[in-house]
Design brief:
Blueprint lengths: L2 E2 L5 E2 L1 E5 L28 H13 L4 E5 L9 H9 L4 E6 L8 H6 L4 E5 L5 H8 L4 H13 L3 E8 L8 H10 L3 E6 L16 H11 L2 E3 L9 E5 L5 E5 L12 E4 L4 E3 L8 E2 L1 H5 L5 H9 L19 H4 L2
Parallel strand pairs: 3-4, 3-12, 4-5, 5-6, 6-7, 7-8, 8-11
Antiparallel strand pairs: 1-2, 9-10, 10-11, 12-13, 13-14
């Protein structure tokens, strides 16, 4: 069984947010203040996460990414990822990396081979300014700890003009001697994150800069890829650009999302969501709700225009 929308796109990739809070306060994610943390009973517990994931898997999901907030803040994170691994789906996560050293064995047992680590600056003071923490050294150590353990590490870098755009070459140079995959992400609008289009470093601008400085090889992209992948000749690692704003990839979108409180979104920019947790707790069959949510998916940007007035939510609550 497969989940198709009205545009013929099959959906086989589910992102599950495990928690609605984070130990970082990144400016593009939570620019002013963090929303009130929900009570534990408002969030999916471990058993519900695993059971609801199983329903999606029966509907054709074969890849699950755990997100947050910061997923490793869950006290039962290790238990959850081990239980999900019993489904034999491709399992991965997106994390800020700060607590990864505590979960290496859980990741190995769960068969996680690749994960994304968000790091928007290689300069300690700038990193601390963006995240409102003093976590740079710990994150940086954990990146190389996971590399040494044989994990494939993707670095997520949200580029913002006038903030960290001068560090593009520094990130590229990391791929010279290390098998890292650096992904530059266009700055996207979310509720209250003070997005302006002139802060976006577009795909075209970035690729022109890189083409002038480096001997680039274009790597093949797959139909569901959010990235446009490249490699610098002679470098061990690779790079990619996620052009959500200037060159969207919606035509091949295969992703669905569940927030930590059990609400399903069919798009990062969807204005509405479907409550799965309440009917699930009431013993109802949620398959029809899932199928209706997928059928309601707009072709692009949740049916909106990419402007500062876009209606969604804080990235912290969506799970990225």
């Amino acid at each position: 069984m497969n989940l198709f929308d009205t545009f013929g796109r099959v959906h086989n990739y589910l992102r599950i947010s495990l928690i609605d809070t984070c130990n970082f306060t990144c400016t593009y994610c939570v620019p002013h203040q963090k929303p009130d943390k929900k009570k534990a009973e408002q969030l999916m517990n471990a058993q519900e996460i695993v059971a609801i994931a199983g329903i999606f898997i029966r509907l054709g999901i074969d890849k699950i990414r755990l997100t947050g907030g910061e997923p490793t803040l869950r006290k039962d994170f290790g238990h959850i990822i081990r239980k999900l691994s019993e489904y034999k789906v491709q399992l991965t996560l997106t994390t800020n990396g700060f607590l990864l050293h505590e979960f290496v064995s859980d990741l190995e047992v769960a068969g996680v081979h690749s994960l994304n680590i968000s790091i928007d600056s290689l300069q300690e003071e700038r990193f601390n300014s963006i995240t409102k923490t003093r976590g740079f050294q710990q994150v940086y150590r954990n990146i190389f700890l996971l590399l040494q353990k044989g994990f494939h590490i993707k670095l997520n870098v949200v580029l913002m003009r006038g903030v960290n755009d001068e560090e593009v070459d520094d990130f590229i140079e990391l791929t010279k001697n290390y098998p890292l995959h650096v992904r530059f992400i266009e700055f996207m609008p979310f509720t209250d994150n003070e997005w302006e289009k002139n802060k976006v470093i577009s795909f075209q601008e970035l690729i022109e800069h890189l083409g002038e400085k480096y001997d680039l090889i274009k790597l093949p992209d797959q139909v569901h890829d959010t990235t446009k992948k490249y490699k610098v000749v002679g470098y061990k690692g690779t790079l990619a650009i996620i052009s959500s704003v200037s060159n969207p990839f919606c035509s091949g979108c295969n992703r669905l999302r569940i927030s930590a409180d059990g609400k399903m979104r069919n798009c990062l920019f969807a204005q509405g969501s479907t409550n799965l947790l309440t009917p699930f707790r009431n013993g109802e069959d949620i398959v029809s709700l899932i199928e209706q949510n997928v059928k309601a998916k707009a072709f692009q940007y949740g049916g909106q225009q990419m402007t500062s007035d876009i209606k969604n939510s804080q990235m912290l609550l969506i799970g990225g």
